[in-house]
């Protein structure tokens, strides 16, 4: 069994963060501050478990969650890009819509505004290779996780490929730097940004699904700030796919540790819940202090 | 004769503003020739070229390329037809390499994948074919302006264009870089490329073009073979009348008193290899125009910000009438007597959503306040008076954003002159103004000079600098490499200044 | 400089919001007609409902003023949720200590709440000033952390064990605002809110400080260039903004709740933000916008009480408003908005 349980749980905790951050990297690199990762992930969490519950199939459930989250992303994208609304306000709208809609629907479907446990949902498939699992550190990090953990690693590689080895990625990154350039060559920057929104939606759907399906239940606002932390992971990871992996792991470790601390020192739950916000805040401040010092002003 | 392009009776009206930018404009260019498209700002040149490049759609009219009627509704279509355009504001991604910039939008791929190696090879071959001093792998952000423009041209050559449009390509270049650009253009013509050059500089028209089409107020006023028309005639057609651009330099009768002095000013930037300003010293005197010339990126922008209080020097001192004002904030400088017309009139010089009246009093709101409250009647009266005195078109309550660029510039000048104590900093005071507005600015400046004001003129318009200045400081690499005055200045031409500005000559600091 | 309120825009937004209500009710309710009946007519049925509906206007006005002042000064304060809640809590606690001071105690307690939230918001202003940290994000994050801290305090150290609610003790009667329309909740708080509109409008349009604050909002570079104290005007609008949010919280305790109930203000900050956006940050326009939004809010409460949808349906309406309100299509030609 796991020799370093903290490392092991850090890896599973970081998975939804990594997925959302990887998706958010696309919108970020195209020059948009996307605060709706939170809402898109929440919708992904709700829809994936509900669809899995009703279809009886994990694959179909996740697929439908993917499509509906992308629809949500498309709504935000259209409002932002084609109606030219302020992206922060449309991001807020997406978050409010997701948190309102999940509660309203949950009440309508299950007569319950609180935690909904889905008994019929099967446990996620796990990768179990006992002899390898007992290798210290490496075994804890790499083996014994559920499907979505490995999916997140695979998708990170996909993102790396898309962003740095395809014309799409090159063009998307050019838009983030100066959208006029692509426009002057006859391409529509908004088209690329829309695709970035859709990709962000898809990745966030996976991230949300990780949360609800690994728990077998939906908890109102169960993302509890993870979308915001995903944003910080992007900044901390220097907007590079591999940097994201490292930053997400640091957050996973911190979270795993605070879970442990809560049990060990009996800290009030509210303070534990506040950690993501406070941590995000400190990182934001630290980063801006670092940047302003480097600019030397 | 075979024509590379023929545009016939093009009409374009902008629906938002109702401006008729092109009114039945026609133009044609024989293959393998250079056409200069000349005219003042706002004559409709850029609109016409944007139509040809597919960035704007005409309301009426037809276009033929190589004799065939075409509809160009996107730059992609233009590229396919062999038309390329180099924009006035360079369209480059600084973080990307030369080859990435050149191939962007038409990438070299192997299946789905970008082929980095093949791309670099192709672009290197292209660079070698045209003898540009560039490397395919270099980051564009590290290139000089002249090199960046070459990357822009490469971008179009990569797309195999046969007709190249250049929108005011020399606006940001020093004279010597202009020569290099023109050499390139001539080579391209030999290889069969046709070129349209948007410009309003007379000398360039004569030097480089075979044909000339002149626009004014959205209409074509004439098309000529360049050899058959002289500069005066061109100037007359562009402006509508002949301009006497002569100024009287010596008119201040008072004593030569120092107002502002910079001593050993150095401005370091973190992470930069060399200082942005290096040991800069000069004095500005009453009744004198001190001109500053330099290519972009050589310290003039920093000098402007420093004089305006936006940045503080790392070393050195600034004295104002003998008082040490080093490191003063804009607020402190305003109190001590700063008047300053910034180069960027929209981001720094005005608040476009605020009213004209409020823009006029923003620098001295205390004078219009009693007991913490604004004296509204006094503000309106003052504003109405200033607007009338300076012939600014617009009511006191109108938003500044609703004014034309020329009127905004007049408003800023009016505010600063009204604020004036004994010195004023003018940065690019006539940028984007038409000839007549520019002349009225010059007259205003000379009037201030007669009144004994010290004027510091920072301008990229060398004609202006040479015509108005009593002394000229030339900046290169953050240093003053020449201070021309007296006979040396009288004999100076744009080429002389250009040589200093590019660092080809140096150490000519003479006098104070 | 825009004194006119453009009617078509407001109409479009009102129509969109109503459409959002109707569509979501049809999709989500088993008996849509009954739900719509309660939604739209419920708030108007009799003194009690009308009073309650008007009462929530007061808090919305204070909150919307809070967001608008920051916006007029060029800063975003997205911390309304936490600053309302925190201000309410501090005002509540302050009443316990100040009770002996007599007549001056109620305004002092309100000011304590306002001061607290003002300082919380000013902290984001400080971070922006010092290191350029984006205040949009810091106000939001601090606000969410603050909510959790107040939750802890309300549910722990300050819990009133004598009730079933998770709430603090009740404030003394001397602090409670007079009722206007018994038996409804409508209190003099609404009158104070209207007064606040007058004060803020006067401040922005007639005072020198208001002038400088607006210049900062129009163009901070220009403000710096003109010699306006930009450092101060990075902090001050944020402080004022937070203070008004804090007042919104205090007034809802003194007028309506009489104790800080756990998460009683949940959603108020976003509602106030919606009101401010509809009003485009203009103090006078906030009044009708708050009336409209209070009506929607009361409608969803009624629909929840008498039918099968939950109160959260209002977030869907909010979302629809937020998606469209800043759209360039709704802006009048040539108009510029922050």
Keywords:
heterotrimer, A: 297 residues, mainly alpha, ABC transporter involved in vitamin B12 uptake, BtuC, two-stranded antiparallel ribbon, 2 strands, 1% strand, globular, B: 512 residues, alpha/beta, Rossmann fold, 4 domains, 7-stranded mixed β-sheet, 6-stranded mixed β-sheet, 17 helices, 25 strands, 26% strand
Question: What do these coordinates show?
Answer:
The complex is a heterotrimer of chains A (297), B (512) and C (338). Chain A has helices spanning 5-29, 37-55, 58-82, 87-110, 130-133, 138-142, 147-165, 167-177, 179-184, 189-215, 226-236, 241-265, 269-295, and strands at residues 116-117, 217-218. Chain A is mostly helical. Chain A has a single domain, classed as ABC transporter involved in vitamin B12 uptake, BtuC (Orthogonal Bundle), CATH 1.10.3470. Chain A has a two-stranded antiparallel ribbon with strand order 1-2. Chain B has 512 residues and is of the alpha/beta class. Helix content of chain B is 33%, strand content 26%. Chain B is built from 17 helices and 25 strands. The longest helix of chain B is centred in the middle third of the chain and has 16 residues, at 175-190. The radius of gyration of chain B is 25 Å and the shape is globular. Residues 508-512 of chain B have low confidence and may be disordered. With 338 residues, chain C is mainly alpha-helical. Chain C has a single domain (7-329), classed as ABC transporter involved in vitamin B12 uptake, BtuC, CATH 1.10.3470. Chain C contains 13 helices and no strands. In chain C, 59% of the residues are buried.
CATH architecture of chain C: Orthogonal Bundle
- Look at the structure and give the mean pLDDT of chain A: 88
What coarse outline of chain C follows from CA principal-axis ratios?
Answer: globular
- Low-pLDDT ranges of chain C: 1-5, 332-338
CATH topology of chain A: ABC transporter involved in vitamin B12 uptake, BtuC
Give the number of helices of chain C: 13
Question: Which CATH architecture of chain A?
Answer: Orthogonal Bundle
Helix content of chain A: over 70%
What percentage of amino acids of chain C are in beta strands? under 5%
Q: Class of chain C, according to the CATH hierarchy?
A: Mainly Alpha
Strand order of the largest sheet of chain A: 1-2
* Mean of pLDDT of chain C: 88
- Which two protein chains have the largest interface (Cβ within 8 Å of the partner's Cβ), and how many residues from each? A-C, 42 and 47 residues
When the domains of chain A are counted, the total is 1
Counting helices, strands and paired strands, the structural category of chain C is mainly alpha
What is the gyration radius of chain C calculated from CA atoms?
20 Å
Helix content of chain C: 55-70%
**Can you write the helix and strand succession of chain C as a string?**
HHHHHHHHHHHHH
């Amino acid at each position: 069994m796991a020799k370093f349980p903290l490392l092991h749980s850090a890896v599973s905790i970081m998975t939804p963060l990594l997925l959302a951050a990887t998706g958010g990297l696309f919108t970020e690199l195209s020059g948009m501050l996307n605060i709706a990762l939170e809402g898109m992930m929440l919708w992904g969490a709700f829809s994936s478990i509900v669809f899995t519950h009703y279809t009886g199939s994990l694959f179909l459930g996740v697929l439908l969650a993917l499509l509906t989250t992308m629809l949500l992303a498309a709504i935000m994208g259209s409002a932002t890009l084609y109606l030219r609304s302020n992206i922060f306000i449309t991001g807020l709208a997406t978050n409010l819509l997701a948190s309102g809609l999940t509660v309203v629907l949950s009440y309508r479907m299950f007569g319950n505004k609180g935690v909904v446990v889905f008994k019929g949902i099967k446990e996620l498939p796990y990768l179990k290779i006992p002899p390898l699992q007992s290798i210290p550190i490496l075994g804890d990090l790499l083996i014994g996780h559920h499907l979505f953990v490995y999916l997140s690693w695979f998708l990170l590689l996909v993102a790396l490929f898309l962003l740095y080895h395809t014309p799409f990625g090159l063009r998307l990154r050019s838009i983030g730097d100066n959208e006029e350039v692509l426009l002057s060559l006859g391409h529509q920057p908004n088209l690329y940004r829309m695709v970035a929104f859709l990709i962000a939606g898809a990745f966030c759907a996976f991230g949300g699904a990780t949360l609800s399906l690994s728990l077998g239940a939906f908890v109102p606002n169960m993302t509890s700030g993870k979308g915001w932390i995903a944003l910080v992971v992007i900044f901390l990871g220097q907007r590079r796919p591999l940097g994201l992996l490292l930053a997400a792991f640091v957050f996973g470790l911190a979270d795993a540790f605070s879970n442990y601390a809560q049990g060990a020192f009996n800290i009030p739950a509210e303070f534990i819940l506040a950690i993501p916000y406070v941590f995000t805040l400190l990182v934001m401040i630290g980063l801006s202090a670092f940047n302003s010092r480097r600019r030397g002003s | 004769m075979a024509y590379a392009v023929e545009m016939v009776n093009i009409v374009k009206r902008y629906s938002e503003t109702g401006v008729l930018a092109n009114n039945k404009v026609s133009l044609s260019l024989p293959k393998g020739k250079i056409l200069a498209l000349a005219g003042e700002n706002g004559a409709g040149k850029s609109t016409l070229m944007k139509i040809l490049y597919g960035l704007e759609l005409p309301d009426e009219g037809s276009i033929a390329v190589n004799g065939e009627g075409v509809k160009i509704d996107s730059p992609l279509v233009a590229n396919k037809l062999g038309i390329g355009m180099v924009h006035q504001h360079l369209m480059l991604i600084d973080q990307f390499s030369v080859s990435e910039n050149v191939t962007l939008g038409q990438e070299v791929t192997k299946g789905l994948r970008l082929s980095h190696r093949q791309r670099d090879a192709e672009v290197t071959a292209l660079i070698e074919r045209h003898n540009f001093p560039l490397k395919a792998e270099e980051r564009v952000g590290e290139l000089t302006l002249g090199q960046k423009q070459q990357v822009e041209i490469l971008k179009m050559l990569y797309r195999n264009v046969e007709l190249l449009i250049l929108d005011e390509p020399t606006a940001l270049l020093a004279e010597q870089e202009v020569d290099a650009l023109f050499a390139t253009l001539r080579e391209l013509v030999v290889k069969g490329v046709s070129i349209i050059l948007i410009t309003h500089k007379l000398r360039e028209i004569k030097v480089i073009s075979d044909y000339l089409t002149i626009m004014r107020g959205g209409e074509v006023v004439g098309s000529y073979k360049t050899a058959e028309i002289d500069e005066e005639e061109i100037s007359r057609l562009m402006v509508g009348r002949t301009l006497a651009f002569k100024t009287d330099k010596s008119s201040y009768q008072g004593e030569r008193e120092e107002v502002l002095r910079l001593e050993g000013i150095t401005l370091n930037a973190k992470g930069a290899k060399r200082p942005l300003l290096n040991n800069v010293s000069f004095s500005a005197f009453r009744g004198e125009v001190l001109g500053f010339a330099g290519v972009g990126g050589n310290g003039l922008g920093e000098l402007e910000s420093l004089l305006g209080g936006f940045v503080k020097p790392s070393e050195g001192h600034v004295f104002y009438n003998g008082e040490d004002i080093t490191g003063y904030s804009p607020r402190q400088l305003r109190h001590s007597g700063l008047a300053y017309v910034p180069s960027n009139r929209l981001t720094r010089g005005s608040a476009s959503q605020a009213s004209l009246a409020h823009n006029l009093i923003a620098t001295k709101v205390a004078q219009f306040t009693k007991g913490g409250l604004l004296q509204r009647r006094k503000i309106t009266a003052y504003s109405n008076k200033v607007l009338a005195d300076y012939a600014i078109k617009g009511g006191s309550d109108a938003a500044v954003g609703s004014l034309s660029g020329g009127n905004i510039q007049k408003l800023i000048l009016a505010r600063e002159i009204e604020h004036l104590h004994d010195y004023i900093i003018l940065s690019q005071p006539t940028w984007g103004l038409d000839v007549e507005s520019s002349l009225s600015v010059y007259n205003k400046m000379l009037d201030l000079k007669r009144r004994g004001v010290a004027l510091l003129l920072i301008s990229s318009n060398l004609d202006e600098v040479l015509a108005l200045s009593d002394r000229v400081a030339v900046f290169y690499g953050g240093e003053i490499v020449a201070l021309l005055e007296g006979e040396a200045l009288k004999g100076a031409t744009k080429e002389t200044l250009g040589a200093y500005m590019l660092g080809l000559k140096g150490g000519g600091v003479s006098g104070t | 400089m825009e004194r006119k309120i453009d009617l078509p825009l407001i109409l479009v937004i009102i129509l969109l919001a109503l459409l959002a209500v109707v569509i979501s009710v049809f999709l989500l309710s088993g008996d849509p007609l009954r739900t719509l009946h309660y939604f739209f007519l419920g708030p108007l049925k009799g003194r009690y409902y009308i009073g309650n509906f008007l009462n929530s206007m007061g808090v919305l006005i204070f909150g919307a003023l809070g967001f608008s002042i920051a916006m007029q000064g060029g800063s975003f304060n997205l911390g309304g949720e936490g600053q309302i809640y925190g201000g309410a809590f501090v005002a509540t606690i302050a009443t316990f200590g100040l009770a002996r001071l007599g007549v001056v105690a109620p305004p002092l307690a309100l000011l304590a709440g306002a001061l607290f939230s003002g300082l919380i918001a000013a902290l984001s202003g400080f971070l922006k000033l010092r290191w350029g940290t984006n205040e949009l994000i810091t106000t939001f994050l601090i606000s969410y952390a603050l909510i959790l801290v107040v939750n802890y305090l309300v549910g722990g150290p300050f819990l009133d064990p004598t009730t079933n609610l998770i709430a603090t003790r009740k404030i003394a009667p001397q602090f409670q605002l007079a009722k206007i329309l018994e038996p409804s909740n409508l209190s003099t708080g609404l009158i104070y809110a209207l007064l606040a509109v007058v004060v803020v409008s006067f401040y922005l349009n007639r005072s020198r400080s208001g002038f400088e604050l607006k210049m900062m909002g129009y163009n901070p570079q220009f403000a710096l260039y003109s010699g306006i104290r930009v450092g101060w005007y990075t902090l001050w609008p944020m402080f004022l903004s937070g203070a008004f949010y804090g007042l919104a919280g205090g007034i809802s305790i003194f007028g309506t709740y009489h104790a800080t109930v756990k998460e009683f203000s949940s959603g108020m900050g976003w509602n106030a933000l919606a009101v401010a956006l509809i009003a485009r940050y203009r103090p006078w326009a906030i009044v009708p916008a708050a009336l409209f939004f209070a009506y929607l809010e009361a409608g969803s409460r009624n629909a929840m009480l008498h039918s099968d949808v939950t109160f959260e349906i209002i977030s869907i309406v909010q979302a629809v408003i937020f998606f469209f309100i800043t759209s360039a299509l709704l802006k009048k030609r040539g108009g510029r908005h922050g």
